[in-house]
Structures are given as C-alpha cells and as structure tokens.
Amino acid sequence: MLASRMIGKALGKGVFEISREVKEAEMKFGKENVINSTIGTFYGENENLSVLNAVENYYKNLPANELFGYASDISGSNEYKEAVKENVFDIYKDTFDKAFIGVTATPGGTGAIHNTLKAYMDCGETVLLPEFMWEAYKHLASANGLKFETYSLFDGDSFNLLDFSKKVLEMAKTQKKVLVVINDPCQNPTGYSLSLEEWKKVIEILKEATQYGKVILLNDIAYIDYDFRGSVNSRKYMTLFNGLPEDILVIMAFSMSKSFTSYGLRVGAQVAISSNKKIIEEFDVASTFLCRTSWSNTTRGGMKLLADIYSNEKLLKKVEDEREEKIVLLEKRAEIFLEESKKFGLITCPFRSGFFITIPLKENAKEIIDDLKAKKVFVLPIAGGIRVALCSVPCEKIKKLPEIIVQSIKKFNK
Ligand SMILES: Cc1ncc(COP(=O)(O)O)c(C=O)c1O
C-alpha cells in the first residue's frame, strides 16, 4: 500500500525496546537497583521529570482562548518572534547591523530542521551531518528524500577543522551546494561546544566554500541554555553571522523543549540570517508555506508563554534562576562522572557542557551494551559509541557508572 518513496523508511525499535527493558528491570529489581541512562529530558535527583515551576505555573494559568484558540499567524505571532530573538541573541540582538533576520515558528526544533531541509534541498541531494549526532537528523534527511555524509567531530580534544574543511569543500565542488548541520553549543550526544576561535575558522571555511557553491549552515541550538559558559559567552559566536557573504544563509533551529522544559508543548522556530534582504523574504514565504502544508500553525499557548516570559522581567528572572539550579546540578553530575572516568581510565569524547557525554566505542558495542544490561545498567547505543545522560541520572548513580562501564568494555575490548 505504501508509496514507493516510503518503502524501507522506519524509525527502528531501538529506543522503545530499551524503555520496555528498563521498565521490566525496574519492576523486577526495584528502581533503586537499576541505572537508567537512556532518558534525554531533565530529571531531578528523585528521578522524576523536573520542570521549571515558573513556566509550569504561568502556562497553567493562561486564559482558555490562549490555550485552545488557533494562533493568529501561520508563521507565529510577532510577539513570539521577538521573544525568540531575545532568547537566541541575548545581548547581541542589536549587533546585527549588516544582516536581515527572519523567524518562523515551528513545532519544536524538529519542525525547524524539517522545514529547513525541505526548503533548501532537492530530493536526491546530500546533507552534511556530524559523525556523532542526534539520530533524528538521519530520519529527517531520509523523510525529505536526502542522503547524508558525515564530518568527523574531533581532533584530539578539539573540533576537527581539517576534516570539516575537506568535507565542506568537496561537497561544494561536487554538489554546488552544501547544507551542513552543526549542533552547537552542548552537542547531543557528546556535550562538545566549539570555542569562539573554532567558530571563526568554521566561518572562514564556509566562506571559502562559496567559491564553488551556495552554503546553508543549519545551527541546531537546542541545548544552548545549558551551556556552562553562561548565556552571554555561549552566544558570542553568533556575532560572526553578521555581514556574511550573500551565498551563506544561516538558519538556527531554536527549541523551547529543553530551555523551558516544555518538551511536550512542541514549540520552536527557524531563525534565518542573511545579508541579503531578498533571501530572508524568500525564507519567510517558503517557510510559511511549509508550515501551512505540514502542521499549519504552532501551538498558541506555547508561543504566548514565551512571549509573556520575555515581556515580564520578573518572570524571566524566575525562569532563569530556576534554570540555573538545573545547570549547577548538571555541572555537578558532569564533574562526578569525569572524575570517576579519570580514576578508572574510561575514555570519553571531549565534553564541555550540556545534557550528555559520549563514550566512543570502535567495536563490540552490542556485547558491551548487553553486558551492561545484565548489570542493570541501561545506556543509549549511538553510532560509534554509547551516550550517558547527565540530565536524567542522579549523582549517586552517576558516580557508579564509569567503573561499571569500564569493566564491561575491558571484558570485550582488550
Ligand atoms: C540535538 C537536538 N536537536 C533538536 C532537538 C529537537 O527537539 P524538539 O523538537 O523537542 O524541540 C533535540 C531533541 O531531543 C535534540 O536532541
């Protein structure tokens, strides 16, 4: 029955199967005896979903028409778009004097990524993705009839500029167009963040690529508000997007999911930056068309929530203060995990901040993961390694993880 373009397209049972196994283990052995490091949302030390109270209370008290009515505009209300800019650019908002900016509301960052792939790539073309990545990128590419190649992420403890340059330039020469995804800061799944110096070099490479074709940089910033460097430092690199050559279009994928613990609300945005006004006008028309023909508009209550947070200093401060408590906890969990890793010789990918840490595994990943399961430890298998979720495992359990993981690795990888 399926259309031929859908044949073979499936998400795979991976995550659902693991959740089922975790539940079974928790029932059998008790939650306290199981380490579940597969959840990608923020859990408190009591192992329950932890939301920002100020966000929860404000949202619950919105009037019915704001929660249940249609949003007025397909691409999002003006107040929402302004609030998105406030969040994304912070103090740098007024520094974009050589750029035009367009914002389109989407259902989460996922919607922003989907819209971008659909609007800027033709079926059969190839996108460039990071070697360690949020697996959904592959599915989003596939859903849009696209292939993907990857760039290597690390050179020792730094970003692999050499491979990035090689892959970008090769693609620009052969395809005459490059759409490259950089999930930064706080990359999922490694927790890496490029330094400002690394970003400067990335921009130089993208400029060089424009000699051969058009460049679209899709910067996924889903975890930006958990950057340990703080809001201002984490956003400094964005000033490099001001006054870029016209053949470089930057689209940032903004998401309320993590920043406002609003995962289920499904609110995000595409934030497009170009030095050419026409390119932004074209972006506005195309992205609005794609919204209308994919999901219509984004949830009104979610947009209202963000708009109101950014027009109410007190509320914003409350939200930021509460989020800071979560960041402090994340830092603590990261510190414990890295310290224990060092003690037991567990090698991790370079980590800077955020929700996750990755342990690279070249071989026997399945055997190692199965061995961990036998010890009632559940981690997320990813291409090239395993992901540890700092966001959802309490300190006491995080402390135990490195030694247990090392033992399983040593059993199979001598
Ligand atoms: C790297 C990355 N980007 C984007 C998203 C999108 O999230 P949402 O669609 O909920 O905004 C996620 C969610 O897990 C993610 O991990």
Q: Would you kindly provide a brief summary of this structure?
A:
The chain is 45% helix and 17% strand. The protein is of the alpha/beta class and 414 residues long.
Would you kindly provide a written description of the structure presented here, covering whatever features stand out?
The chain has helices spanning 14-29, 53-60, 64-68, 78-89, 108-120, 136-143, 161-175, 196-209, 231-235, 256-259, 277-294, 300-309, 313-344, 365-374, 395-412, and strands at 35-37, 100-106, 126-130, 147-151, 154-155, 158-159, 177-183, 214-220, 248-255, 268-274, 356-360, 377-382, 385-389. The chain is of the alpha/beta class. It has 2 domains: 4-52 and 320-412, Aspartate Aminotransferase, domain 1 (Alpha-Beta Complex), CATH 3.90.1150; 59-314, Type I PLP-dependent aspartate aminotransferase-like (Major domain) (Aspartate Aminotransferase, domain 2), CATH 3.40.640.10. A 5-stranded mixed beta sheet has the order 2-10-9-8-7, with helices on both faces. The chain has a 4-stranded mixed beta sheet with strand order 1-12-13-11, with helices on both faces. Helix 6 (136-143) links the parallel strand 3 and strand 4. The protein is globular. The mean pLDDT is 96.
Spatial strand sequence of the major β-sheet: 2-10-9-8-7
CATH architecture of the largest domain: 3-Layer(aba) Sandwich
Give the cofactors and ligands: pyridoxal-5'-phosphate
Structural class: alpha/beta
| CATH superfamily heading of the largest domain | Type I PLP-dependent aspartate aminotransferase-like (Major domain)
Report the CATH topology name of the largest domain: Aspartate Aminotransferase, domain 2
Radius of gyration: 21 Å
Q: What would the average pLDDT be, to the nearest integer?
A: 96
CATH secondary-structure class of the largest domain: Alpha Beta
Number of domains: 2
Kindly, what is the distance between the CA atoms of the first and last residues, rounded to a whole number of angstroms?
A: 49 Å
Strand content: 15-25%
Helix coverage percent: 40-55%
